[in-house]
Amino acid sequence: MGTLYVVATPIGNLSDMTERAIKTLTEVDYILCEDTRNSIKLLNHFNIKNKLIAYHKFNEQEKVNSIIKDLKEGKNIALISDAGTPCISDPGSIIVKQAKENKINVIGIGGISASITALSISGLHTTSFTFYGFFPREKKEQDKIIEEINNSKVKTFIFYESPKRIIKTLELLKEEIPNLKISVSKELTKLHEKNFYGDINKVLKELKNDDKTTSGEYTFIIEKEETKEDKEQSVSVESQLIDLIIKNNITIKDAIDKLNKENKNLSKKEIYNASLNLKNILK
To answer: Which CATH code is given to the segment(s) 115-225?
Structure first.
């Protein structure tokens, strides 16, 4: 049984290519890639002499069986995309899923991902986030995502966008989601890398005044303003129980009942566990 290697490649700066990635691409039996014309440039730069096979969203289904057959026969195969990490808004998830279901070993060779690189320099909330890939073009899908964002407890959302649509997309988000902070990264890791940060109105103004806005690829990250409910939720359940006990001069049992009735965002289990913590603290 062979191994499928999912190999991340640079998104712009070739110096980001890892030694392990070079070694893997050199030693496998062949390499699956989105576009042989793009990937041959990468291989030539690192003097990698290996066979490239086109594997993209239009032929994934028809090629998957023959690739799985090769893996079962002991061939080692690498999967790369045009740039960044395969399967992240790029082809690859179908072959990885099939390999897993056929008990074939799948190994990731880490490296650059535009979404995580942009998030790390965003200055926005990074504890939890949702990655959507390219912002949709159809209004129905746009409305669906905007509704999900407005209703989500997650604050930070990552998208890719084309240079021709970036301003139009941000204008839409400005109208539909109030008080957004945003980080827009352009040409990540490349010579003309640029980042815009701040209130969405400020960023839109800067993009409109940039004479090179319509060139380069964009990763943008939005952060919702913390709502009143979020702020209330951020106060520990233990603190809320103590507050009720002191203000109402009631027992911890009565405080549990009162909090259950007043705060529907908390589950009974959360409140009960908090009461146990509180009892241990007060021992």
So the answer is: 3.30.950.10
pLDDT in tens, 98-143: 999 999 999 999 998 999 999 999 999 998 999 999 999 999 999 9
Q: Model-level pTM?
A: 0.75
Domain boundaries, given as residue ranges, for the chain:
3-112, 115-225, 229-282
For the chain, the DSSP string reads --EEEEE-B-SS-GGG--HHHHHHHHHSSEEEES-HHHHHHHHHHTT----EEE--TTTHHHHHHHHHHHHHTT--EEE--SSB-TTSSSS-HHHHHHHHHTT-EEEEE----HHHHHHHTS-S--SSEEEEEEPP-SHHHHHHHHHHHHH-S--EEEEEE-TTTHHHHHHHHHHHSSS-EEEEEESTTSTT-EEEEEEHHHHHHHHHT-TTTTSS-EEEEEEPPPPHHHHHHHS-HHHHHHHHHHHHT--HHHHHHHHHHH-TTS-HHHHHHHHHHHHHHH-
Give me the CATH code for the 3-112 domain, please.
Answer: 3.40.1010.10
